[in-house]
# Entry
Amino acid sequence: MIMENFLTIPEEILLLSVGENGGVIPHDKNFEVVLAASILMDLAINNRLDSDTEKMILVSNAPTNNTLLDEALEMIFSNKERRDPSYWISQLSVRSREFMEYIVASLILKKVLKVENQKLLWFFSKRKYPLIKDKEIKEVKLRVRELVFSNDIPDLRDIVIISLLHYGQLLSLVFTEPEINKYKSRIEKIAMMDLIGQAISKSLTVFVSTTFSSVTKNILGIKSPEEKLSLFVKEMKEKFRIADDKDLPSWLRKGTAQYQKTLDFIKKVGHTDIYYHRKKDQYFEHTLTYTMHDFGSGA
Amino acid sequence: MNKYIKRDNQLTCILSGRIDTLSSSVLENELTEKMKEDISSVVFDMRYVDYISSTFLRIVIKMVKALGKGNFVISNIQPTVMKVFKMANLTDIVKFE
# Structure
């Protein structure tokens, strides 16, 4: 009964943000936290995490052979303190831009997406996945829609995806407003069917209910790179609910050598729409355009 | 340790103790083997079960999905465990006896 899935949950969540004719739909402010939560969900489905009615349980740090999931697994298991899902959503969200790169690379490698003229496109002319062992796997958006509109018993991964979209307030990526209203009860029922799904997804509400400050806008009027970085850190802390500076990654933690490198990069590019890629040990500007070079020769 | 009784096409699984991630994994492997036989309905007898985690609920969903709603039954469930099924909203799709 153990099933190997063609795509990970984070990959399917990212695909929901790729439009019908390619191109990434500008991400909702909740998208990064939903993506982070989806990583925890996938680890749960792969029996690395579990939960009961009260807590999240660390089960196994055996590698999953997926770069993204294993990065997250290493983060979680190397932490000495037992933390709740919201802490991990926060920690993973800070790295969400870096993680998106992993996800896109993997989707290109799996021939679901391709890059043309710096635009991310579906590999096939319509949104679908390649045949796996001559079998067709239904694309996530179609699958989720069909499930909600029917009375079928859901698959576990579809429960998880619906749960993420519901609690992360991203149902509009899949449904129209009238559809959301009409099928509200069915969606809520499905979203509750997995306990860890509930635990993780409910943690999302902490993030999605946050009203962000206008820090980013203010950055435009600020001259010094030091001030820009300081405000960027403040915004990240607020956005991802990081209360303590020690929980910030080193590239955003004042006093570290990496923080100085972050500052140097901001001085070079002149803005803070950037992220640090830990594995590559490099900084990148955040952009919605793509080149094959970004994803390595394998992609 | 789980016990299995097969009568005609029905498999009764007498489960016991805490069903956490590890014991769920054992149960899942055992079920995979048993289901290779000609089984059309399954009963989980849960009189000896006092704890379940999320992983067990996933096995239940897979069983209902594989067998159909009427062909998977949970019997003799304890109130504390039933509470978990209610929390996960699974009482609509699982048949209890």
